[in-house]
Automatic annotation (TrEMBL):
Keyword Cytoplasm: no
NCBIfam families for the chain: transpos_IS6
Stored SUPFAM superfamilies: Ribonuclease H-like
KW Repeat (keyword) present: no
Organism taxonomic ancestry: Bacteria, Pseudomonadati, Pseudomonadota, Alphaproteobacteria, Rhodobacterales
UniProt xrefs under Gene3D superfamilies: Ribonuclease H-like superfamily/Ribonuclease H
Keywords from the UniProt entry: DNA recombination, DNA-binding, Transposition
Protein name per the record: IS6 family transposase ISPmar1
Organism from which the protein derives: Roseobacter fucihabitans
Length: 227
């Protein structure tokens, strides 16, 4: 359960503001005006703090509570601008389009790819196969995962498939993330970007029905994840 101790606003108000920001394409100035129209006098700087603090916490709960995913994965990265520089949002989904995990990185190299695959496997288990693009670093990252399997005497390895047209599903999935981040223009810090993107990914997972909560609205599901 996420703690809201010390907050000067009700939990429901905070979560509504955070969910609205990560689900819809609005700026903090827009959200400030929306909240004021709802009778909540809160400035954009406070809204920014809420999003950065609570998005990460909700994302942690989402990783634990999402429905089980398939073992045929699609992995790719997209570009996110931070402080005027491009960074890399690593993302993976299963063949049904369900989000597996995500990670923002300042670099696109073997170390980043290896760290991402280790993170995805830790939260989803081992895949049977992974479809990637022609990126050499991603292929090496998966090779490193297979080396771990060999070291632990496993009798099978992850099948690595570099087939571009079969990876179109994740390239399409990036579009939701890019649509929400577009009004944000550029993030002012890496931590701010990583926190906000975590919330956006959770909103996208809710939209895709990954939490098996029929009958609940998107906000109600987001609030339930917060406990």
């Amino acid at each position: 359960m996420i703690s809201f101790k010390g907050a000067h606003f009700p939990k429901s108000v905070i979560l509504y503001a955070v969910y609205f920001y990560v689900r819809f394409a609005v700026s903090y100035r827009d959200l400030e005006e929306i909240m004021n129209e709802c009778g909540v006098d809160v400035d954009h700087a406070t809204l920014n703090r809420w999003v950065e603090k609570y998005s990460v916490a909700v994302a942690g709960e989402a990783r634990c509570q999402k429905a089980s995913t398939g073992r045929s994965w699609r992995m790719d990265e997209t570009y996110i601008k931070v402080k005027g520089q491009w960074t890399y949002l690593y993302r993976a989904i299963d063949k049904y389009g369900n989000t597996l995990d995500f990670m923002l990185s300042e670099r696109r190299d073997e170390a980043a790819a290896t760290a991402f695959f280790a993170k995805v496997i830790a939260s989803n288990g081992w895949p049977d196969k992974v479809f990637i693009d022609k990126s050499g670093s991603n292929a090496v990252g998966l090779f490193n995962m297979n080396c771990l399997l060999v070291m632990h005497n496993w009798c099978w390895l992850i099948e690595i498939l570099q087939v571009k047209y079969l990876n179109n599903i994740i390239e399409q999935d990036h579009r939701f993330i890019k649509k929400i981040t577009r009004p944000m223009q550029t993030f002012k810090s890496f931590n701010s970007a990583a926190s906000t993107l975590a919330g956006i990914e959770v909103a996208h997972m809710i939209r895709k029905g990954q939490f098996d909560r029929p009958g609940l609205s998107g906000f109600e599901q987001f609030a339930e994840l917060a406990g």
